[in-house]
Every structure is written in C-alpha cells, then in structure tokens.
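Fold description:
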Amino acid sequence: MRDSDFYFRKIDWVSIGLYFLLVFFGWINIYAAVYDEQNAKSIFDLSINSGSQMVWIATAVLLIILILVADYRLFENLSLVLYAFFIILLILTPIIGKEINGQRAWFEIGAFRLQPAEFAKFATALALAKIMEANTFDLSKVKYQLRALGIIGLPALFILFQPDFGSAMVYSAFFILLFREGMPNRYYVLAITLILLAILAILIENNFIVVGVIGVCLVIVFFIGKKNWQKVVTLAFLGVFMIGYVYSIDFVVSKLPPHHQNRIMVLFDPDIDPLGVGWNVTQSKIAIGSGGLTGKGYLEGTQTKFDFVPEQHTDFIFCTLGEEFGWIGSLVVIALFITLLLRLVFLAERQKTRFSRVYGYGVISILFFHFFINISMTVGMFPVVGIPLPFFSYGGSSLWAFTILLFIFIKLDSHRIQILGRMS
C-alpha cells in the first residue's frame, strides 16, 4: 500500500462531512434570502448570490484538494512567511484597498474581491503554533506571554485602521487557545472583571455608584485571607486602576463613530435607535420568532423576502434559517456546529506535536467565536459587529478563509503518526 493511500484513509471524514453539510445548508439559505417569487430564478443562476456562492463553493473544493495533496510540512515551514505576507497586505489595505460602506477592507481586481483580514486569521493561528511549538515556550512567563500577544495583536491593530472593529475583535478568540496552553488564570479573571465594569459603566450613568461597588468589593477582598501591607498596596493599585478604567469608558465610547455607539447602546435598549441598528436586531428577532417550532417552510419567509432584515444573506443569515425552518431547523444547524467543534477538540487533543495541537485550538477558537457571536448578534444578545457565520454566510473571502483554516488542520491530523515518527 502506498503511503499516500494510507494517509488518505486517515483523513477525518466526520469533520469533512460536517463541513459540507454546513456549506450546503448555508447555500440553500442564501438562495432563500434573495428568492423573489415574482421573478424566480434558479439557485444556480450566476446573476444572484446563490449562483455566485456556488462558484465560491466549487473553488473551495479545489482548495481542499490542493491542501490534502500538499506536503503537510509545507504549512509549518511557511507559517511565519504567510503571517508576514498577510501583515503586509493588512498594512496596504487601508491605503490602496476598495472602500465599501466606509471601510477599506478589500482588494478589488475586476469583479473579484479579496478581504485580507479573513485570511490573516489562519496565518495568525499558524504563526502562534510555530512560536509555541518549542518545549521551552512557557506561557507562565511574561516574555512568552508578550510574544504570543504580539502575534495576536499585530494583525488586529492593522485591521482597526480599515476600520473593521468586528474582524479585529475576532482575534480575542485566541485567548481560548492560550488558556488551553497554560496562560495564567489571573488574566482571565481580570478580563471578565473589566468586561463587567465596562457594562456597569455604560448602564449606570452615575459613575460614583460604580466606584462605590468597586470599593465595597476591595474591602471584602481585604478581609478575606491574610492582611499585610503588600495586600494593601496591591488592592490600592487595583482600586486606582479600576476607577480610572471606569471613567475612561465614557471617554472611549464618546470617541466612537455614532453608529458604533448605537450598536453598543442598542444591546441594552433597542428603542434607542429603532430605525437604525435597533431596526436590524428587532427585525431579526421578529423573523426568528415568527418561524415558530417548524418554520414557515422553505422559500416561504416574509420578513426576509420583503427585505425587513438588512444583510440577511451575510451577517444575519441565521434569521433566514429561523424563519423558514423554525426552532427545529435552527437547533439542527446549531447542533452541527457544536458537533464540529467538539470533533475538532477531540482531534486537537490526539495530536502528537504541540504545533498541530496549538493550531487545532486556533481553528476551534476562531470557529467558536464566529459561531457564538454571530448567532448572539442576530438574537440581540451581542452588539452588531458584522462578522459572518462560518461556512454559512454569503462571501467568497470568508468561505475560502474558513475552508483553508479547517482543512490545514485536517491535513495535519491525517499525518499525526508520520509527524511523530519524523520527530523521533
């Protein structure tokens, strides 16, 4: 038996099957989102989004074949080169990129558009895996923490210049990877505390109340455990830092563009901008709720057909699913995503090298973040930040990027035994 045949059989067909199921359901929902009964066109018609997406799916299959037949060592050897390449593209994007809806996030060549921010995600995951593969890399030490955070923060910083806050936010997903690889828990406790303080600062107009809450909490912590001067100094420093942070929230929010301010405030009160951002979320929830248990039926949705929901074939594709397939259809798709994520966790944990495991958790982190935030966004649990649902939303760049991200890991997994043999 040839080695290529042996490793071809080692490919995880469960993950591949879940991928194609999600792509298929996404494709038919894209068609449903743009379907016009008065001027019905075939799902294969290249003049509508479903036809264009079919082309992207076909080319994604070609990418899959190229990845699976490539030498698995290529991805590790070129990881830092790919990272540097996409960093350069991200630098150039705000300068020479195509401006759409106030953002310079795309390169346009004829009818072809490429969004570098989407592809930079898999390059960042590869770069993190490369720098963390050494046995001496220890996330409990500050110098290694700074290296990892630098790899994550650099692309996010350049994406902010486009400006694309949603895509930049995705890079925070890599903290899931860092948690798995040993980042100290105190950083996550601090992050959660800062998030809660930010929410309180936004919800409560009088910051003195928030400062009072901080003071009470610090006093309680002081009386828990040992009491010494070091604890007093530490708590005093934390108190000053948190109070300064709370007062900085108002300043930062006030400097955001009005539509970004509205997206944040609408999360807490949809009536603040009922005809703007609030309209998107409200109509999305109406569409999902109107589907009931079993939905209105395929191509029978009304909220989506009459364009009540903006961006219903991209960022709000989930509401099309909810309206036409109902709670059951939504549950099936959510179950497919969760099954894929759990399968990838299983694959990541069985890897024989740290490079493959770290990259695998990079894939998991990005897919989970997109899945969770996109659905939370459509049901009004998170501000509208404009990130696609993986494999589901319309768009060539996102489909290609997610496909490359996933199938590099599937390729590495299929060679895990060979990788171990090469190391030994």
